[in-house]
């Protein structure tokens, strides 16, 4: 639906009143009505870097979800304030690993005698507490665009063949990167279930594993199935299947291309006219790409028509953005995201290790 013209005018006016004092970041999964006001759009990695590169902006308005805004707060200076236009915009995957559960997991690894061989690698899609845990234990953060480099870094820190990675919280990104990109086998991976005593694993299994995958997943990407890949290949001859690495291993294994949101966009930009694509990622982005490339003769469809939007990304809508911008223009900070100093210190260590990856 087209954006409400009155709200568009109000957002524009508030942004003009704020001028350089505000910088608006928009993740690719945001609604069109919101993304039109973003000063920069990107995947999680690009947005983290861009937030850190705007020291002159007093306010960073983050159109995305809670863990992204927390990361921006960690990476920006103390005088800058990060605003999430709806504080209820969380991420169900990030919520699947709590600080208590992860501390308990470390105890399990310690009891099994493997903790000193384990380097934690945590996906950006995690709370600041989990990032701080990662930093405290010598690990790094990764995103879907640098997961392989992060794992290589982590394994490179141990004696050859001795290392293990605890990958949090997305089992699929961890497994897909290890198996598809790095040639490990499915047997090298075990899944730690935080709802079972000892993670549901024996000490022997933990000792044999190379990748200890946290049992978390994305509720949106987890719904693309092998059936949807088979169905689209039958329906559209010559179609190429392009999916996000948060999809399950069987979907990723059946796809032609895999990549972060930024990579998905660049693959489609480079695609020749007449090519056909089925894309398995969040619907706002797929729709925007289908519209953008339609007049270049590229046919882009959604991989599975029964999968819906990321409901928490969609919480940031134009009314919330207008409310945030107008409040800031009136001198009132709403929706502020603030990470406490100790958590920030250790989370920043882990984020900076990611930013320094080759
Ligand atoms: P990227 O934009 O880094 O690919 O991440 C996708 C995602 O699910 C963010 O929530
Ligand atoms: Fe979280 Fe999945 Fe939504 Fe990304 S798409 S914010 S991982 S629930």
UniProtKB/TrEMBL annotation:
<dbReference type="InterPro" id="IPR023515">
    <property type="entry name" value="Quinolinate_synth_A_type3"/>
</dbReference>
<feature type="binding site">
    <location>
        <position position="310"/>
    </location>
    <ligand>
        <name>[4Fe-4S] cluster</name>
    </ligand>
</feature>
<feature type="binding site">
    <location>
        <position position="27"/>
    </location>
    <ligand>
        <name>iminosuccinate</name>
    </ligand>
</feature>
<comment type="similarity">
    <text>Belongs to the quinolinate synthase family. Type 3 subfamily.</text>
</comment>
<dbReference type="GO" id="GO:0005829">
    <property type="term" value="C:cytosol"/>
</dbReference>
<dbReference type="GO" id="GO:0051539">
    <property type="term" value="F:4 iron, 4 sulfur cluster binding"/>
</dbReference>
<keyword id="KW-0808">Transferase</keyword>
<protein>
    <recommendedName>
        <fullName>Quinolinate synthase</fullName>
        <ecNumber>2.5.1.72</ecNumber>
    </recommendedName>
</protein>
<feature type="binding site">
    <location>
        <begin position="123"/>
        <end position="125"/>
    </location>
    <ligand>
        <name>iminosuccinate</name>
    </ligand>
</feature>
<keyword id="KW-0963">Cytoplasm</keyword>
<comment type="function">
    <text>Catalyzes the condensation of iminoaspartate with dihydroxyacetone phosphate to form quinolinate.</text>
</comment>
<dbReference type="GO" id="GO:0046872">
    <property type="term" value="F:metal ion binding"/>
</dbReference>
<dbReference type="GO" id="GO:0008987">
    <property type="term" value="F:quinolinate synthetase A activity"/>
</dbReference>
<comment type="pathway">
    <text>Cofactor biosynthesis; NAD(+) biosynthesis; quinolinate from iminoaspartate: step 1/1.</text>
</comment>
<feature type="binding site">
    <location>
        <position position="44"/>
    </location>
    <ligand>
        <name>iminosuccinate</name>
    </ligand>
</feature>
<dbReference type="InterPro" id="IPR036094">
    <property type="entry name" value="NadA_sf"/>
</dbReference>
<keyword id="KW-0662">Pyridine nucleotide biosynthesis</keyword>
<dbReference type="GO" id="GO:0034628">
    <property type="term" value="P:'de novo' NAD+ biosynthetic process from L-aspartate"/>
</dbReference>
<feature type="binding site">
    <location>
        <position position="261"/>
    </location>
    <ligand>
        <name>iminosuccinate</name>
    </ligand>
</feature>
<dbReference type="Pfam" id="PF02445">
    <property type="entry name" value="NadA"/>
</dbReference>
<feature type="binding site">
    <location>
        <begin position="244"/>
        <end position="246"/>
    </location>
    <ligand>
        <name>iminosuccinate</name>
    </ligand>
</feature>
<keyword id="KW-0411">Iron-sulfur</keyword>
<dbReference type="InterPro" id="IPR003473">
    <property type="entry name" value="NadA"/>
</dbReference>
<feature type="binding site">
    <location>
        <position position="91"/>
    </location>
    <ligand>
        <name>[4Fe-4S] cluster</name>
    </ligand>
</feature>
<keyword id="KW-0408">Iron</keyword>
<feature type="binding site">
    <location>
        <position position="218"/>
    </location>
    <ligand>
        <name>[4Fe-4S] cluster</name>
    </ligand>
</feature>
<keyword id="KW-0479">Metal-binding</keyword>
<feature type="binding site">
    <location>
        <position position="144"/>
    </location>
    <ligand>
        <name>iminosuccinate</name>
    </ligand>
</feature>
<keyword id="KW-0004">4Fe-4S</keyword>
């Amino acid at each position: 639906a087209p954006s409400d013209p009155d709200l568009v005018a109000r957002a524009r006016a508030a942004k003009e009143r704020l001028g350089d004092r505000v910088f608006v970041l928009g993740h690719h999964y945001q609604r069109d009505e919101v993304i039109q006001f973003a000063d920069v759009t990107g995947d999680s990695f690009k947005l983290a870097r861009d937030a850190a590169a705007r020291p002159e902006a007093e306010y960073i308005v983050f159109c995305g979800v809670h863990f992204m805004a927390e990361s921006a707060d960690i990476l920006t200076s103390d005088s800058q304030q990060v605003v999430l236009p709806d504080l209820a915009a969380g991420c169900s995957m990030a919520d699947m690993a709590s600080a208590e559960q992860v501390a308990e997991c470390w105890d399990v690894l310690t009891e099994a005698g493997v903790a000193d061989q384990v380097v934690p690698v945590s996906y950006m899609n995690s709370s600041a507490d989990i990032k701080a845990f990662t930093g405290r234990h010598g690990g790094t953060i990764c995103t879907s665009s640098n997961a392989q480099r992060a794992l290589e870094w982590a394994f490179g820190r141990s004696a050859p063949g001795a290392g293990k990675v605890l990958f949090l919280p997305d089992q699929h990104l961890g497994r897909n990167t290890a198996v598809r990109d790095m040639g490990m086998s499915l047997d090298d991976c075990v899944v730690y279930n935080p709802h079972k005593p000892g993670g549901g694993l024996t000490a022997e299994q933990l000792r044999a594993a190379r990748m200890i995958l946290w049992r978390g997943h994305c509720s949106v990407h987890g719904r693309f199935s092998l059936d949807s890949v088979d169905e689209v290949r039958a329906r559209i001859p010559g179609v190429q299947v392009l999916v996000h690495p948060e999809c399950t291993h069987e979907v990723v294994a059946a796809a032609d291309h895999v990549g972060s949101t930024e990579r998905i966009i660049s693959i489609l930009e480079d695609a020749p006219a007449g090519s056909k694509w089925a894309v398995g990622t969040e619907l706002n982005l797929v729709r925007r790409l289908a519209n953008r490339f339609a007049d270049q003769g590229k046919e882009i469809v959604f991989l599975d028509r029964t999968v819906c939007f990321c409901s928490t990304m969609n919480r940031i809508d134009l009314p919330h953005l207008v409310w945030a911008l107008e409040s800031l223009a009136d001198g009132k900070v709403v929706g502020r995201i603030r990470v406490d100093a100790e958590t920030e210190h250790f989370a920043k260590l882990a984020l900076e290790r990611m930013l320094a990856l080759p």
